[in-house]
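In response to the reviewer comment on reproducibility (Comment 2.3), we provide here a single inverse folding case reported in full, input and output, so that an independent group could reproduce the run without further information from us. The structure tokens appear first.
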């Protein structure tokens, strides 16, 4: 039974454009994998705290040495990582807020990147420790950045998820959403057409 993990971060919940694109994708995924299950991690509805020095020290401490606060931080990080490990495919609904990813999503990144758990350091740079399936990213943006140096998200996502071991990443963009109704409708329409054509697959052996 394959599992799709959907990570959302729009302030506007399911009204957010990124959430709506991810939901359209999820509907298609459910049709393709009728016996599959969908897990949702909504980072706006259930925000994570910022990572702290105390939490990082707790990640590395012996179990008996951890304070209750450190135990709670570790448990939260473990839960997020377990969701990623369970996922045979991952979808990220990614709004652009103030030229970058939502702060809630950055907190998620900070809690799942754990040396020795999700990646390890090597002489050639970090190496992913997760056995991954495909990653689908749905970017919603008021302006237009794709293909320019102002697209701060695409390379970040490639680097971050690449570090965890994701080798197959598909981006879908809805851009120019603040540039008038017609521009927004066209952008969303094109994104939906792309979603209909995205290659669907899951981690090897999970079907
Ligand atoms: C707080 C905030 C900051 C934003 N900053 C940017 C920005 O820097 N660049 C941009 O192109 N659009 C920006 N926008 C517009 C959003 O990218 C756009 O509304 C998009 O639809 C957000 O995704 P969502 O609808 O899934 O929340 C911003 C919107 C909000 C609410």
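Designed residues, in position order:
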């Amino acid at each position: 039974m394959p599992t799709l993990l959907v990570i959302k971060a729009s302030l506007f919940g399911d009204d957010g454009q990124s959430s709506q694109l991810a939901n359209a994708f999820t509907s298609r995924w459910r049709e393709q994998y009728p016996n599959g299950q969908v897990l949702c991690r909504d980072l706006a509805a259930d925000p994570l705290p910022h990572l702290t020095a105390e939490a990082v020290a707790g990640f590395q401490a012996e179990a008996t040495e951890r304070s209750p606060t450190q135990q709670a931080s570790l448990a939260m990080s473990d839960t997020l990582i377990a969701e990623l490990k369970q996922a045979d495919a991952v979808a990220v609904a990614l709004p652009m807020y103030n030229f970058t990813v939502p702060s809630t999503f950055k907190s998620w990144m900070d809690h799942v990147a754990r040396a020795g758990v999700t990646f390890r350091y090597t002489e050639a740079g970090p190496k992913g420790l997760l056995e991954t399936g495909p990653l689908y990213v749905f970017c919603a943006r008021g302006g237009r950045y794709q293909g320019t140096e102002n697209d701060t998200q695409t390379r970040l996502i490639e680097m971050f998820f690449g570090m965890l071991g994701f080798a197959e990443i598909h981006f879908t963009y809805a851009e120019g959403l603040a540039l008038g109704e017609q521009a927004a409708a066209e952008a969303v329409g094109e994104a939906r057409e792309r979603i209909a054509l995205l290659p669907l697959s899951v981690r090897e052996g999970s079907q």
